[in-house]
Design a protein that fits this description.
By secondary structure, the chain is α+β, with helices and mostly antiparallel strands. The protein contains five helices and nine strands. Helix 1 crosses helix 3 and helix 1 packs across helix 4 (about 150-165). It is globular.
């Protein structure tokens, strides 16, 4: 069964983003530097176009406030609050979501016996808001599902859920710690321990140097 295509037309502030402490109590947030609300004040991007596993990049990066900021700088705001120049994305919320994803990835990779999840016993992932409809695909000359999440964070959870329910083999690179998929269609062997050949070579080189 092929994966459903998740579409997301998104925007980012070309003036960039910054970390601030705001609210009561004070909490870190990612605010955009621009103040305008006109569409021309934003740059259109398609963060999902280059990869069907952006969730792995998010899970790896968003473990610290600086990591959340870096992710938003590259791919745009995570939630609707990120468009508001006075609110911004809640950093603690982003870190919590990334940690939840890592917990699931550790579990499905076999690195953890039980997932330590803060939600209801039968709820593995956060809920996502999407628009779904059947559209005509001119490439295949047939109908297909089109899923459009409301926010980038929704899209990341949809990607993760699709990967897990499709039976993807998730591994954690023994060299860099990043998550990657292994097995059929991934470009990596099912028993792969590294996300790329360069990291396999570097890991073995370091191991030999330590053994001398």
């Amino acid at each position: 069964m092929s994966r459903l295509v998740i579409e997301l037309d998104w925007w980012r502030d070309p003036k960039g983003y910054r970390l601030v402490q705001s609210g009561q109590p004070k909490a870190p947030r990612v605010l955009r530097n621009g103040k305008g609300h006109d569409p021309k004040d934003f740059r259109p991007i398609r963060p999902l176009a280059s990869t069907d596993s952006l969730f792995r990049i998010f899970a790896n990066m968003a473990s610290t406030p600086d990591g959340v900021l870096d992710f938003v700088q590259r791919y745009g705001p995570l939630t609707d609050d990120g468009w508001d120049a006075t609110k911004g994305d809640n950093v603690n919320l982003a870190i919590s979501n990334a940690d939840h994803m890592r917990q699931l990835l550790r579990y499905v990779s076999g690195a953890k016996k039980t997932p330590d999840l803060p939600f209801r016993p039968y709820q593995a992932t956060c809920s996502s808001s999407i628009e779904a409809q059947v559209v005509w695909d001119p490439a295949t000359k047939g109908p297909k599902w089109e899923l459009r999440p409301k926010t980038l964070l929704d899209a990341l959870w949809l990607q993760l859920g699709q990967a897990l329910t499709a039976g993807a083999q998730i591994r954690q690179c023994e060299h860099c710690g990043d998550w990657f998929e292994a097995g059929r269609g991934s470009g990596r062997r099912l028993d792969a321990k590294f996300c790329c050949d360069e990291h396999r070579t570097s890991f073995n080189s370091l191991k030999r140097s330590r053994e001398k």
